[in-house]
Amino acid sequence: MVEAKQKRRRRLQATKGFYKAYIKKFYRDAHKAKAEGKPVAWVASTFPVEILQAMDIFPVWPENYASLCAAKRVAVKFCEIAESRNFSKDLCSYARCVIGSLSDKENSPEEGLPRPDMLVASTGACDTHFKWFQYIGDRFKAPLHLLNMPYNISGADSEHLEKAHIEFYISQLKELIDFLEEKTDTKLDKKRLKEITALSDRTSQLWGEIQHYRKTIPSPMDARDAFSAVFFLLSIPGSPAAVEFYERLRNEVKERAENKFGAAETENYRLVWDNLPPWFDLKFFEYLNTLGAVVVAETFSHVWMGRLDPSRPFESFAKKYLPNFANCSIDRKIHLIQDLAEEFSADGVILPTNWGCRMMSIGETAVKEEVYRKLGVQSLIVNMDSTDRRNYDEAQIKRNMEVFLQVLNEKNQNG
Amino acid sequence: MTEEIFQQFRDWIDNRHEYAKEWKERTNKKIIGYLCTYVPEEILYAADMLPVRILGSHEPPTVTEPYIFAMFCHLCRDCLAQGLKGRFNYIDGIVEGQSCLHLRQTFNAWRLHIPTNFAHYIHIPHGIQNPHAIPYLAQELAKFKKTLEDWTGKKITNEGLDKGIKIMNKNRELMRKVHEYRKLDNPKITGIEAMEMVLSSQMVDKQEHSKLLNKLLEELPNRNLNRNPGTRLMIIGSEDDDRVFMKNVEALGATFVIEEHCTGSRYLWDDVVPSEDRLMAIASRYVNRVPCPSKDWPEFTRIQHAVKLAKDFNVQGALVIQNKFCDPHGIEIPPLREALKQVGVQTYPLEFDVTVPWGQFRTRVEAFLETLTGLEELF
């Protein structure tokens, strides 16, 4: 049996105090914007947030807020409130958490989400998103606009997308801009959009470099830091703050990689993590470190990047968002995880089936089979929930991890 | 005669695979399986093929676990199970019209793991309230038409499309006429009979089905069910082909006078309005039809439609069904119940899974019916 040892992870300087320095500040800024009468939009993943940033619309992310509530251990209470109002216990746990939080301002971290002036999302993530946003919009009497995204069934990458799909996506962006201009009574400044697009591109580039350094053995950064730091890429990619933070993080990770200084004192097992993490228990990754295991790559860290050409922002957004794995068939997810396992020299892959997020949990068994078939790398499927702690059996998951690592250990010893 | 007609609907459902195999043998034509009612059957009829809907068998779908996790709706898992068990081994291809994440998994798993000659995914836009939806869908339908033509080597002509539109419109029109008899104080057909009529229409040649509907419409004016209709109920939800549940509830002293399901009125409520550009006409029908909640935003138009149905069919109470794990319907349940409450229709929620625990449900439905009867006596 692989046993836990008191060996500590070595937290990166750049991410120390991340919550206070960046998350709290983000929500403070959001409330300040609202108080000053600036437009606030609720937004969901796979949406080109750069356009909002270019129009000085403050983007707040209910998904991020749900993960924050989970980390603050209030998500279960909010989920229960939603359930008491006839929402199914099996509904997306992000949706339940945020819907419940609306009725319990007192216990909502960071004073809750500021009231939306509008809600925007795309059809590229999952069908729950737009129904959830529709419900919220109806409740606040705030307008809702959704981007129609053609489903990328072939899993084509940005260079092989159907021309008709790109054109349709661009037509949808134009409609979105009409909507935003009408609601805010301001015109999109194309020069400003180019600037924001350039910043977002730089953010993606830096994040890509950071991930690249994680291929080093031992890995200079693990999932605990990645799941915090990815915040900028997701929430405000087109901002100087994102670029500044990632430059600092990249420099530190690069230095560690060059000095072969690992994120954990011992790195016996390199793991790839699919799906979301248990947001209420990010220390789980520290526990893995005590077993000599380090998560060196997460699908979550690799699906939100996308290089952008500031001279052609609309086409760039199409190429960034249409191939997002959430908008593609299972083939894309399989190839992504195969590539990560190979490029990051992984010993194993962890495939959580997240009761709270159907979209992220699609096809884990197929992934497991295909990764093994191609690379001989084994995977572990674990049941969990990223937000609703009631669906998370900590002892069981830890036991499964220990046994899995033992299997990997035996495999390594037998060559 | 009427009883024989309903018996025929039942037989078609119970022996759907035998019917399809025999049809294929007899006609030497292709059969296409489809998952969601957003697939425009008009185009398949135009290509001289038989579209049949893939539905589950209500057996625990254990064989699907490697492909779709248990957190996806029972319909999508049960449909895939039918394919994995080889029960649809006679179909020549599978087509899906984009609706939800769940059926998309079924389609993808089917395409990857079950030998199929032809698999096509029609990108029905999610945003059907968007002004671009109709021309966009017309483009997608043109792609679908071309893919079929390339596969069969046969052109789909305008005459063919006219024929497809006519077959579909006629069948829907006749079923809507039958629905008129459900509005009567003493309905001429029960909810289970209506369900079997619609379900069978999704399984057999519509032309054959329509012939039977014509006969039924001749017979219905003189039909006397000789039963007290009891409480006038509505049932609302996503896909529902749970005949046992319908039958059992109606045996408790109630009649389902209308349903809002894609295996019920939602399937037949809207026709194609013929026009010179056939694909635009078909696209308009599928964009403007009573929507699945997965496509119904930003306005909740389906809820407004459900409220109208409740009024038109003089409904006393509604059972609101949540197919376990179906988020698009699930999120609409609180506003739907509120909207029905506003017009004086009491609702009761039930969660359906692959099998329904009738023992528990019976007590709950009985209690709901008593509440409704109590209200009746009170006023």
Task: Lay out the secondary structure.
The complex is a heterodimer of chains A (415) and B (379).
Chain A: H1 18-35, E1 40-43, H2 49-54, E2 58-60, H3 62-71, H4 75-84, H5 93-101, E3 118-122, H6 127-140, E4 144-147, H7 163-184, H8 190-213, H9 223-235, H10 240-258, E5 269-273, H11 284-290, E6 293-298, H12 299-302, H13 313-321, H14 330-343, E7 348-354, H15 364-375, E8 378-384, H16 394-413
Parallel strand pairs in A: 1-2, 1-3, 3-4, 5-6, 5-7, 7-8
Chain B: H1 2-14, H2 16-27, E1 31-34, H3 41-46, E2 50-53, H4 74-84, E3 93-97, H5 101-113, E4 118-122, H6 133-152, H7 158-180, H8 191-201, H9 206-219, E5 231-236, H10 243-250, E6 254-260, H11 265-268, H12 278-288, H13 301-312, E7 317-323, H14 327-342, E8 346-352, H15 358-378
Parallel strand pairs in B: 1-2, 1-3, 3-4, 5-6, 5-7, 7-8
In brief:
Chain A is an alpha/beta fold and 415 residues long. Chain A contains 16 helices and 8 strands. Chain B is built from 15 helices and 8 strands.
Question: What do you see in this structure?
Answer:
- The complex is a heterodimer of chains A (415) and B (379).
- Chain A is of the alpha/beta class and 415 residues long.
- Chain A has one domain (9-414).
- Chain A contains 16 helices and eight strands.
- A four-stranded parallel sheet of chain A has the order 2-1-3-4, with helices on both faces. In chain A, strands 6-5-7-8 form a four-stranded parallel sheet, with helices on both faces.
- In chain A, β1 (40-43), α2 (49-54) and β2 (58-60) form a beta-alpha-beta unit.
- The longest helix of chain A is centred in the middle third of the chain and has 24 residues, at 190-213.
- Chain A is globular, with a radius of gyration of 21 Å.
- The mean pLDDT of chain A is 94.
- The radius of gyration of chain B is 20 Å and the shape is globular.
- Chain B has a domain at 20-154: Rossmann fold (3-Layer(aba) Sandwich), CATH 3.40.50.11890.
- Helices cover 51% and strands 12% of the residues of chain B.
- The longest helix of chain B is centred in the middle third of the chain and has 23 residues, at 158-180.
- Chain B is built from 15 helices and eight strands.
- Chains A and B meet through α6, β4, α7 and α15 of A and α5, α6 and α14 of B.
